Structure formats: structure tokens, C-alpha cells
Amino acid sequence: MNDLIAEFINYLLNTKKYSNHTAIAYESDINDFFKFFAKFVGGVVGVDNVASADTISFRSWLADRAKREFTHKSTARALSSLKTFYKWLAIHKNIQNDAIGLISSPKVPRKLSKAIETTDVADMHQAIKEIDQNEPWLAARDWALVVLIFGCGLRISEALSLKNRDIAGNPTSLRIIGKGNKERIVPVLPAVNEVLKKYTEIRPFGYNVDDPVFRSVRGLPMSPRMAEKVVENLRHYLQLPDYVTPHALRHTFATALLAGGADLRSLQELLGHSSLSTTQLYTKVNMSEIMSAYNNAHPLAKHKD
């Protein structure tokens, strides 16, 4: 089994072009099932066992995960990983198992995204200046990162993957490679180009066209954790709510566009969502704001008859 799993992970990395992080998550989920399955069948798991695993086996595994207090979201992801593995086995190894298709995923409650107040985003500029007052280039970097994510609706990984050649010449759009190696074009506002230009003009290193735009204090490529720490420091400094994260800046971009009249399909393209249902969550966010205003202000909302 280990050889089959290793071959599958290699397929995810080299054929599907999944990230190392995603591939590791798949491997962990699949190993979790087969570790349980070995105990369930009382011996070493072979190819025959994999093919003959029934609904009882799979449901027992899900029940075991519940006992181990995994969240519904974690178990739903694990089941999805296992189903993808079985699909690969059927296509590439001619190992069929119909039972896995009969297993339903646990219901995962979808939380409404929270947008940051635009005034709080504006306050971040002065806060960054004060936090990084001894290192002007770091202040310029941190503000450029905030404005880029907020202004273009990028994921952290997408912002940090940009190279100098991508932003050369004040581009009106960026070519972004997002999740699943999917490409999309994102418009760039002049205000975003302006802060990027100010940052790149004063940074002390990373001038080659193929160098990453965002650099650490030591000149290395900026990591996602460093980006999260930038916003985390701002959150503490300005005493903002816990939901203020780099990803919340992306939510703010989306809700602002929706409130301004953007249609869902256009928003889906800008955000790089593979499913329209993901984008539709922002409709719920916007409607919740509308309902809140209605309940607080409309005379009829307070009429109890």
C-alpha cells in the first residue's frame, strides 16, 4: 500500500501540480484511513482489501474520527482525499471500489466571511509607519502587501509569488496562478501600483527581474507566516477584532465590489473561485449587512403586530 500511496502523491505533485502542503494533507488523510482499516480487518492491508472495502468499513472510520474529536470540516476533507485516491486507483491501476461512492460527506456549516471596516484598513497605514518607524523600507513593504491584497483580492500565496517582472512598468493587470494551477487576470488600480513602486524603490535588495517582490529582513523571500504576522501586529496595535487577517482583506475586497454592483460571475473570476457557490457566500454577507440596517432603522421592523 505504501508504494501505491507514494505513487499517488507523486501524481498530485508532478501531474496535477498541487502544492507540497496540499499533497501532505492528502497523504495524511489517506494514511489515517488505512491505519484504521488495518485494525478493522485485523492484519496487513493489501490491494485485495482496498478493492473490497465496504460501506461499513468507511462509515466505521468516519465514526472513529468523530470519537477522536475531529471536526466535520476535517473529516469532510479526509473523505474527499480518500475518494480522490480511489478514483485514481480506478483510472490508473484498474482497482475498482464502488462502496466509497456511497459514503456521504459530513455536513460542514459554512461560516459567513467577515469584512474589515474600510476605516480600519486606512488606519493600518499610519500604524505600519509607527510599528516600522526605524525601518522605512519595511513600512513600505508591509503597506504595499496590505494594499495589494485589499486592492486586488489576492490570496497570501498569490501575492507572495509575484516576481519583479510581474509588476514592472505599472501594469494595468496581473496574471495570477491560483489554486489548482488555474490562471486568472486581475486588474490593478493606480493606487496599488503607486505603493508597490514606493516599496521597490527603497528596498535594499531583490532587484533582479525574477526575484520575488516581497522580501524578509534578511533578503529572503517573504513567507506566508511573515505576512500573517504583519497583519497580526496591526490587529494588536489597533485593537481590531480577531477576524482581521490577510484573508479578511480579500473578503473586504469582495464585499466592497459586490456592494458596488459587481455581478457574481465577474467576482468569481476576480477571486479565482472554482465554484460559484463559494462566491455566493459574499451575497449572504452583503445581505446580512442589509438586514442588520433594516432591523435597526426601518419603522416596520420594530412593529410587533
Task: Pick out its properties.
mainly alpha, 305 residues, two-stranded antiparallel ribbon, 3% strand, 2 domains, DNA polymerase, domain 1, hpI Integrase, Chain A
Q: How many DSSP helices?
A: 15
CATH homologous superfamily caption of the largest domain: Intergrase catalytic core
Helicity range of the residues?
55-70%
Structural class: mainly alpha
Our Rg estimate from Cα atoms comes to 24 Å
Q: Round the mean pLDDT to the nearest integer and report it.
A: 83
CATH C-level class of the largest domain: Mainly Alpha
Shape, per Cα inertia axes: elongated
Q: Approximately how much beta-strand content do the residues carry?
A: under 5%
Named CATH architecture of the largest domain: Orthogonal Bundle
State the distance separating the first and last CA atoms.
66 Å
Please tally the β strands and state the result: 2
Counted up, domains total 2
- As for the CATH topology of the largest domain, it is hpI Integrase, Chain A
Spatial order of strands in the largest sheet: 1-2
Largest sheet properties: 2 strands, antiparallel
Report low-confidence residues grouped into runs of 5 or more: none
Order of helices and strands: HHHHHHHHHEEHHHHHH
